[in-house]
Design goal:
The protein is of the alpha+beta class. Helices cover 39% and strands 14% of the residues.
Length: 362
């Protein structure tokens, strides 16, 4: 059993929970860190950082760990998403803290004095209020500013403003007769339309009872065929031709729903065919590859290609498979021109192809 180091105390609780879950999965599988690195395509140093809480693993590494340990990728990905949000919040707080420290250091270097700060907003408000207040003995109305400002005097500061600014009751009465006329016309039109609709409906029912017509219409319609739609497991979003060209990870066809019927190499890159019995689809994936290495899969008149990225892994969109998945082959080509194709994997005692041991993605 691996002996883990204590997680950093400053870790966010969600990141701490996620790292602890990764450790429990590795412990339960019995894999060492070196074996985990070999099974997922990510280095031993990277996994030590991931499992000790010093770095958040990428999502593909999480999916690869789930496949290597037999865990459900969707559940582990959910925990990863929560940890990723918490990790981003911590990084943002650190950026704000470092910015505040830099500002304080810059002010100190320039000899900035906190006592020379600008006067508080209250004194500015008082000054403006004294400028706009009416002179004694006059009835001059205060001018209304064109733009409302948060530091301008309010009705609470000068009660006489509220009384002077009250709206005149005679203003809306000039338009009230016209409004009443328009409202009456609208009501009359609506009532007339409703009456016409009611009369039309009554006439239709009177001259077309509808009983015989409904029976004839029902008899002429063909009986609806019983629905043969396949009930898919939770998380699976397509099957068969509906999956062609789509991402197996996003459609829920990978993980526990997929096996590896064939595997091969192109140089140092591992080329695999992944088959989902639930979705009736297959896709090729490449791992331990150099950036630019490619994997191609063809089946059922469709083909798909994927190119390895910086992490050395990639997978193609799905193609439909209606026959034996062991007969579906994937081929890879490295940037150096080395080619290789997959071959059927010997069946396990249970009769199913052996699970993948060297992939970083679904």
């Amino acid at each position: 059993m691996p002996r883990w180091k204590a997680l950093p105390e400053e870790l966010d609780p969600q990141v701490r929970e996620f790292a602890g879950q990764l450790r429990r999965l590795v412990d339960r599988s019995g894999l060492s860190v070196a074996a985990l690195a070999d099974a997922t395509g990510y280095s031993k140093t990277s996994w030590e950082r991931y499992l000790n809480g010093r770095l958040l693993p990428p999502q593909r590494a999480v999916v690869a760990l789930a496949e290597a340990t037999g865990a459900h990728p969707a559940h582990l990905t959910t925990l990863w998403e929560l940890a990723e949000r918490a990790w981003s919040r911590d990084e943002m707080r650190q950026d704000v803290t470092m910015e505040a420290i830099s500002v304080a250091q810059a002010r100190a270097a320039l000899g900035w004095d906190a006592d020379q700060a600008e006067p508080p907003a209250k004194s500015a408000r008082f000054t403006k209020a004294t400028k706009t207040a009416p002179a004694p003995g006059t009835t001059q109305m205060p001018s209304v500013p064109q733009q409302r400002r948060t530091d301008s005097p309010s009705a609470a500061d000068f009660p006489e403003w509220a009384a002077a600014a009250a709206p005149s009751p005679a203003a809306p009465t000039a338009q009230s007769p016209a409004r009443r006329i328009r409202r009456g016309r609208t009501l009359m039109i609506a009532a007339g339309a409703a009456g016409v609709a009611l009369l039309g409906g009554a006439a239709f029912l009177l001259f077309n009872p509808g009983t015989d017509t409904a029976k004839k219409t029902a008899a002429s319609r063909p009986a609806a065929a019983p629905s043969a739609k396949q009930v898919l497991p939770a998380g699976v979003r397509c099957t068969g031709a509906g999956c062609v060209g789509k991402d197996p990870e996003a459609m829920g066809c990978g993980g526990a729903h997929a096996i590896t019927p064939s595997r091969g190499r192109a140089g140092r890159a591992v080329i695999e065919v992944r088959y989902s019995k639930v979705c009736h689809t297959a896709w090729a994936r490449i791992s331990r590859a150099a950036p630019g290495d490619q994997a191609t899969l063809s089946a059922g008149g469709h083909s798909a290609t994927a190119q390895a990225e910086r992490d050395g892994a990639a997978y193609t969109p799905m193609v439909e498979v209606t026959g034996d998945p062991a007969k579906v082959a994937a081929c890879g080509t490295t940037v150096a021109g080395v080619k290789g194709c997959s071959r059927p994997v010997p069946a396990t005692p249970a009769g199913a192809p052996a699970p993948s041991t060297g992939a970083a993605v679904r």
